[in-house]
């Protein structure tokens, strides 16, 4: 169950990062409010997952999901570039997440 909560927390991190971007520096009310709601939910789920997962594993996986997910959202929804170097970086992050999962008990 902890891994499911951690995955949802990571997805919520992607959502709040997106809303923070579209809030235009917190100048738009609804995206700003959604940023805070998803941020709190993400941190709460991360906290619950950390009850049974090691700190290093949980935090690394959470930030990795957020980083790669935000990278993908940037490319597919915000028109950010998808250069070969950026794609390689995302693959390396995903590889690290897989290794982190495989190394945890």
Automatic annotation (TrEMBL):
InterPro entries: EmrE-like, Small_drug/metabolite_transptr, Small_multidrug_res. It is found in: Cell membrane. Its main location: membrane. It is a multi-pass membrane protein. One of its GO terms (molecular function) is transmembrane transporter activity. One of its GO terms (cellular component) is plasma membrane. The chain crosses the membrane at residues 33-50, 57-78, 84-102. It comes from the Bacteria. Pfam families: Multi_Drug_Res. One of its GO terms (biological process) is xenobiotic detoxification by transmembrane export across the plasma membrane. Keywords: Cell membrane, Membrane, Transmembrane, Transmembrane helix, Transport. PANTHER family: GUANIDINIUM EXPORTER (PTHR30561:SF0), SMR FAMILY PROTON-DEPENDENT DRUG EFFLUX TRANSPORTER SUGE (PTHR30561). Belongs to the drug/metabolite transporter (DMT) superfamily. Small multidrug resistance (SMR) (TC 2.A.7.1) family. Gdx/SugE subfamily. This is Guanidinium exporter. It comes from Acinetobacter nematophilus.
